[in-house]
């Protein structure tokens, strides 16, 4: 059986390198680091130039550490059909109108048939209340529907 493909969204390297010390951020950081350090090898990791662009806007040295995490992760291109998918997501009010944000991450993960979109964005992506709408629009477009998960969900088998 082939490895499951995991699209790494920006919040994953963000929480891996987080400097916040509030309990929620520390928990997310610990779960992210544990998944990245001990479980990522079980998956085929992919990401996009959108993630790299977001991370490149960070101040140093956190930027360098976050980008280093993705050094060996394959970059999926945002081809023309992906841009059309983003437009459809925005038109159906599935995602905010930011063309390089959440809609682009979901479009790339869907277009390239990623098994998982790994994120801590529980407002627009890993949100059970939005998943039915996401699935409906993707099915309408004939697209694969990735599982929208957090690192904790991919660690649950250890619990």
Average pLDDT, rounded to a whole number, is 89
Q: How far is the N terminus from the C terminus? A: 24 Å
Q: Any idea what the CATH superfamily is called?
A: 5'-nuclease
CATH class division? Alpha Beta
Discrete helix count: 8
Helix content: 40-55%
Query: How many strand units?
Result: 5
Shape: globular
Rg from C-alpha positions? 15 Å
Main pleated sheet: 5 strands, parallel
What structural category arises from helix and sheet content?
alpha/beta
Strand content: 5-15%
What number of domains? 1
Strand order of the largest sheet: 3-2-1-4-5
Explained architecture:
α5 packs across α6. The chain has eight helices and five strands. A five-stranded parallel sheet has the order 3-2-1-4-5. The mean pLDDT is 89. The chain has helices at residues 11-16, 23-38, 49-56, 62-69, 80-91, 102-111, 128-140, 151-155, and strands at 5-8, 44-48, 74-76, 116-118, 147-149. It is globular and about 40 Å long. The chain is α/β, with parallel strands linked by helices and 159 residues long. α7 (128-140) links the parallel β4 and β5. It has a single domain (5-152), classed as 3-Layer(aba) Sandwich (Rossmann fold).
